[in-house]
Specification:
HisK_dim/P_dom, Helix Hairpins, 13 helices, BphY/WalK/GraS-like, five-stranded antiparallel β-sheet, 12 strands, histidine kinase, five-stranded mixed β-sheet, Beta-Lactamase, 411 residues, alpha+beta, EC 2.7.13.3, single chain, kinase, 17% strand
Length: 411
């Protein structure tokens, strides 16, 4: 109540009440009531305009523009490089901007702070109305980095004008786009090569070679092999696309890896016939099932065993090991006894169409997508892929997949 009326308003009402009592004591009840009611009404009316300093008044509106002292704290909270440019000089720069361009840039001419020909012209151009297109900067910070510079005019009345420069790192987006372009180019090349071979042999058969049985059969076999190569490539491309589309769907079915390894190993041995490469299986007992997609894990085994057979020494065995790790993961590894892979190639083996020996890979019927498919399947299973190789001794590719619950399959 005191906040509503004010102290002086309450005091005035008290005086009116005393006056009314005095009138009543004189003996005039009607005059006393009139005095009391009229006096209170007059005081309440006057309180709306006369007690402004006692009544609660609304707080003044906050200034939406933070004081200049607060600008460093505000822009430091932004993870991307931000510069405030006043009269052509860098007046403020957040931590990200100083890390990228140097700690000395505050107070410098902005053209010296951002040393790039593409930036200088835009930075010194007069303010424009409306949104301005961004400027692409290549090589700022590091040679391979790509940045997008966006400029906004503050219009805050600062002397000389104030601009906000925002740098957006586009290196990752550019790398992804370059990978896409390279992928399309490589896929086109891989399909065009066998197709050109097939068309050439068809043309030859249609002319003079069609009448010679032995030559015709040899050409037809080459055409068949090239057509199968195209078929495998297209199947791998479709498979890779399907796996990437499902990569955010975590497989949750229990898969017995030991049983799956036995099944895949048997199928490969049966398909080889008498000249089968020995495939040894060292499967630990009491290995729990994994959370997975049986078809995709089978594809991983086919790819890894197939690679070990292609690139291992002729007649040398391929070994598959399965074990349970203390971390709760299940590990299976495929090892060959081949020539090994130089260390500088190992980080790139899972790239699409990357080959250590292009001629040998194509001669063996490889598409260049096998390990890329394996990597994406392992990532979908929230697993891990490791490749170890020793020159002259061989290569081991290991996959670790999380176990499914606490169940254990007794073998």
């Amino acid at each position: 109540m005191i906040n509503g009326f004010g102290l002086r308003t309450l005091a005035a009402i008290g005086i009116i009440v005393v006056a009314s009592v005095a009138v009543f004591l004189i003996g005039d009840l009607q005059a006393s009531l009139i005095t009391l009611i009229g006096g209170i009404a007059a005081v309440l009316t006057a309180a709306g305009i006369g007690d402004g300093e006692d009544a609660a008044s609304p707080a003044p509106a906050a200034d939406p523009t933070p004081p200049p002292d607060h600008i460093p704290a505000v822009i430091d909270a932004i993870v991307e490089p931000i510069l405030i440019v006043t009269s052509g000089q860098v007046s403020h720069a957040n931590v990200a901007a100083r890390t990228l361009l140097g700690q000395h840039i505050v107070g410098q001419d902005v053209r010296l702070a951002i040393r790039h020909p593409g930036a200088a012209e835009r930075l010194m151009s007069p303010p424009r109305e409306g949104a301005q297109p961004p400027v692409n900067l290549v090589g700022l910070g590091a040679r391979e980095q790509r940045w997008e510079m966006r400029i906004g005019d503050a219009h805050d009345g600062a002397a000389g004008g104030r601009r906000i420069v925002h740098l957006v790192d586009q290196t990752g987006s550019y790398a992804a786009e370059r990978m896409r372009v390279d992928f399309v180019a490589n896929a086109s090349h891989e399909l065009r090569t066998p197709l050109a071979s097939i068309l050439g042999y068809i043309e030859t058969l249609g002319e003079e070679a069609g009448d010679e049985k032995d030559l015709r059969e040899r050409f037809l076999k080459i055409m068949f092999d090239e057509a199968r190569r195209m078929q495998r490539l297209i199947e791998d491309l479709i498979s890779l696309s399907r796996i990437e589309a499902e990569k955010y769907r975590l497989p949750d079915r229990a898969v017995d890896l030991a049983g799956l390894i036995d099944e895949v190993r048997g199928d490969i041995l049966d398909a080889q016939g008498e000249d089968a490469v020995p495939i040894l299986a060292d499967l630990a007992a009491d290995v729990p099932p994994v959370s997975g997609d049986s078809a995709q894990l089978s594809q991983v085994l086919y790819n890894l065993i197939g690679n070990a057979m292609k690139y291992g020494r002729k007649g040398a065995p391929v070994t598959i090991r399965l074990e349970r790790l203390p971390t709760g993961m299940v590990r299976f590894a495929v090892s060959d006894e081949g020539d090994g892979i130089p260390a500088e190639h190992i980080p790139r083996l899972t790239e699409r169409f990357y080959r250590v020996d292009t001629g040998r890979s194509r001669a063996a019927g490889g598409t260049g997508l096998g390990l890329s498919i394996v990597k994406h399947i392992v990532e979908r299973h929230r697993g891990r892929l490791d490749i170890e190789s020793i020159i002259g001794k061989g290569t081991t590719v290991a996959v670790m997949i999380p176990a499914h619950g606490s169940a254990v399959i007794k073998r």
